[in-house]
Amino acid sequence: MIRIAHWIGGAERAGVSGRVGPVFNPATGEQTAEVDLASADEVDQAVRGAKEAAKAWRSASLSRRAAVLFKFRELLAARSGELAAVITSEHGKVLSDAAGEVARGLENAEFATGVPHLMKGSYSEQAATGVDVYSIRQPLGVVAGITPFNFPAMVPLWMCTTAIAAGNAFVLKPSEKDPSAALFLARLWREAGLPEGVFTVVNGDAATVDAILTHPDIAAVSFVGSTPVAKHIYETGTANGKRVQALGGAKNHMVVLPDAELDAAADAAVSAAYGSAGERCMAVSVVVAVGDVADPLVEAIAARLPKLKVGPGTDPESQMGPLISAQHRDRVAGYIEKTGATVVADGREADVPGDGYFLGVTLLDNVTPEMDVYTDEIFGPVLGVVRVATYAEALELINENEYGNGTAIFTRDGGAARRFQFDVNVGMVGVNVPIPVPVAYYSFGGWKASLFGDTHMYGPDGIHFFTRAKVVTSRWPDPGTSTVDLGFPTTR
Ligand code: NAD
Predict the structure, then answer these.
(1) Of these residues, 8, 281, 333, 367, which one is catalytic?
(2) Would you call 281 a catalytic residue per the annotation?
């Protein structure tokens, strides 16, 4: 049995807590590895090393940091196929989807190569007579990232590229369900010339996370995961004096107006609902059909489903892999069992291979807002259709929903799309784009219960989150002109 260790001091370090967790191949149901789960003592040792490393790394010149980022980006691009295979073996998503995740993470490394520009401050000459004022941004020291199972490479890359470029030491606690991608990234950082201790991996579970949240030498915590855990992370982290951004779950609505291009909307709904078996925080889980588009739209979506190929992620024919665990598959199937909606396609009836955690695709029509399948984040290949009469009803539905991660509108009417963008209480909006994940030079973040904290992730907000501002007011007086003055400094 493979043993997955921590990464501390620039090398693998076997755990000593005596606690381990199982790692499975979701396509076969076999346990493939055991992962070490760090104790509070092990977290403390890792953080001590990171603290030393952070002192030296913040002094590294901007061009040296950029050079490491360029090299890391090059290595990641060259080895993306290998990393995708690692992701598929523990997560289950199809290889092309895993490669897509790596490609999006790579864009964050590309953004971070621009760190000399990103860390520029501002300068005001002659703010008062003979006085200049300027601002600089400095790293925080040791910062931590806690990440979910569904993007084992991309979400760590959202965080670590920006945090490290800004001059921090980064401690990652990846999901214990698919931890190997984190160690793959650690090896690439080492090969790229990153000094030891600047990137650390502590594997673990909730107990490990609590040791991170209460550790006095960790200045900030960046989290992505489910809403109840995000709330816990935000509350505990801030109560312990840390800066925290905690991204939570989602229920993403795709509004289809009567004038939408029907085939494009149906293709988009199917792709965005069932890609990665619906285990994406930006997956479309609700289609809101406005007016008389509902019947033809449901028909068009349903017509596409029998052609979808569910199978192991390593099979190039597969379009959708298994779910992450047997327990999660059964939970998702439970929603279909108890729904009061019209079951147009039932994923439980799909012909799925072997003992893997497969579930076919499910389409539910006539979903109403009080049903569990509407209120809960199911996080599986289940798409619900809510029928409404007007645009105003569609908007109200979305704005009253607990979550506000992503949403999309499908229409040919630019004015309607613009109004939607203006009105909707959601952080990321697509216009005829079903999964509007912002490119790396914008920032990613939802509203409402999809994000606790005030700063979005990666891009300009990422730099902001992982640095703090300092403002310097300086005077270099002409010799012989200084005087004693007890008054409050003014700008005259
Ligand atoms: P999760 O909340 O179960 O776990 C996330 C991380 O928190 C893991 O590292 C896990 O070990 C840790 N954790 C779990 N329970 C904990 C607890 N009680 N105390 C402290 N730490 C704990 O999430 P998941 O199942 O791995 O991922 C799926 C969830 O993540 C979905 O809700 C999805 O919407 C969300 N997600 C959100 C975004 C976003 O950008 N908003 C992106 C990806 C995933």
Answers:
(1) 281
(2) yes
